[in-house]
Amino acid sequence: MHAPPRPSLFKRLTAPFSRRDILEGALVGIAFLLYFGVRGAVVDRPETAYWHARDIIDAQRWLGIFWEDSMNSWVAAHRLVAQAMNYAYFYLHFPLIIVFGIWMYFFRRHRYTLTRDSFLLSGAIALVIYWLYPVAPPRELPELASQFDPTAPPYIHGFLDTMKEYLGYAYDTQSTRTFVNPYAAMPSLHFGWDLLLGIGIIRAFWGERWLWIAAPAGAMMPVLQVFSITLTANHFFLDAAAGGIVALAGLGLAVAVERWVYPWLGAQVRRSPMRRLLTVKEDPREPAHTSA
Predict the structure, then answer these.
(1) Tag placement on the chain: N or C end, fewer CB within 10 Å?
(2) Are 214 and 34 in contact (CB under 8 A)?
(3) Residue 269, Cβ neighbours under 10 Å: how many?
């Protein structure tokens, strides 16, 4: 008797996953690669980014809320607080978003898609703004001022990059330069995406017994990021405000897509002669849809 043909390497690697799992991973992976690839490609306007940052400072001074220089000077003298803000800035953002997204996909599938789409759509909006209006973060201003504005006021030269100084991590290193745009301070998706993360955490446990823990944790996320992004000299307060607006716009668009676009696409797929290829088989792990 002949032994049955051995499955291909691709089939062996993908056997534990449903078609939906593979498509989801590809969608999110490609979307974030495009986001960071495009974000890292628009880095050739440092002088423009510097003067836009000066415009934001002038606007905050007019509003009476330009406190970032004093806050950064204070935290620079308190290393323990600086390190806490550094860790919050780094670990309570993208790493936590990835972990929470994977958990939500497998355990709160009926509430996952709206959260995913709100991140992707807000990221798309932010990319357009980064391209049209590059803004240097406070930590970049001392170096840029030495090139383009020698008579800049003292507060421009006083910002300290606490992550580089105390954590040993810098966004302009060779390993991260490809995917990082140093002039993407406005809007701050560090704040905006943590706002969406907080909303997602609350939605994930809405109506469940753990909501009493999830609700404060979700509310804490954007509040903590406001302090971490400003104390570490990575963003201005107006960057955070813009990030919140963009995040909520992405959430609103995600609601519209879920309500009107997906039903229309589903109808088109059902009418398509390629519907068997385009239709994702139902995953038995996926719970029945409930609104939230």
Answers:
(1) N
(2) no
(3) 15
